[in-house]
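Why do we bother with a discrete structure alphabet at all? Because it lets us treat a fold like text: something you can write down, compare, and reason about line by line. To make this less abstract, here is a complete entry for Beta sliding clamp. Read it the way you would read a sentence in a foreign language you are learning: slowly, and without expecting to understand everything at once.
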Amino acid sequence: MKISLERAQLLKALAHVQSVVERRNTIPILSNVLLQASDGKLALTATDLDIEVVETVAATVGQGGSTTAPAHVLYDIVRKLPEGAEVSLDHDSASERLEIRAGRSRFSLATLPKDDYPAMSAGDMTHRFQMAGTALKTLIDKTRFAISTEETRYYLNGIYLHTMEVNGAPVLRAVATDGHRLARVELPAPDGAAGMPGIIFPRKAVGEIRKLIDDVEGDVAIAVSDTKIRFSMGSVVFTSKLIDGTFPDYQRVIPSGNDKRLGVDTAAFSASVDRVSTVSSEKSRAVKMALEDGRLTLSVTSPDSGSATEEMEVDYAGDAMEIGFNARYLLEIAGQIGSETAVFELQDAGSPTVVHDDGTSTALYVLMPMRV
């Protein structure tokens, strides 16, 4: 294999694929990236057996061929080469070394046989549809903070994607929960998505696809089966296994009878919560919200540091009540509210609270209270 290509192109592709590769691997071949050169293109593939990402870049191919090289080392080498450099990759099957040249720099990396590299078969994708990259970004950003990290409840370790009808119109809905808070956002279902199986998209794959979307313009082609999901965008194809489990019936935890409405200035509320929670050494410390007509008092008491209170004017006309919430959860939800006003729908100090904006957003959040 003999090829040459621009440093910037190679660096961008390596940045995309190497992040899938785990830093510590018990299987040596999984530490490598597969390089395949043919017909004026270089294809780079990385996998951890659950996720596979393939990116293709233009290259001057003197001699086709393929090999595997250490992903993180190769990325660090290319990253440290001078901007604008022309990078040459030369693999001699006899020596089993990959020679890298750029200007006066020379590197030689050990390789492993390409035949040992695992291939992730996509399988039969039953549903295919397209959606704008910005729409996919919205689905991910407004839900992923609520994904559970508790491995015992593995079926909560991802975003649940499914289609359903709302007011007679098909929607694509994304849901995530860790048992303490729930995030739900929906968009009009793209053509071809109707009837797709409900799938749980794993946490690591969510993070990887989110990074890739930032570098891609236009639509993303999505293909789904019972066990895998594949995203095709530009020169990148990203495939991930799905979580084999049953997502709980989240509809049951979304209250519908909360009759107390609280409207707060989103930015001011977020800043106030952040300030009063400063006295607590633990971000999970409860913030007490004391409500009365037109006024909200936020307070935190820490046995180690002291206490803090702050008052703010709000839109509230219900009965006086006190309720406590995890400070970090409040801040994360407030960060997803797109309008100037955040709306809390409450019932009592022990019941889940619904949070949403006051506009036309289809995002909704449910937050469990804490004892204060």
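What the structure line is telling us, in plain words: The chain has a mean pLDDT of 92. The helical segments are 7-18, 71-80, 133-141, 203-213, 266-276, 327-334.
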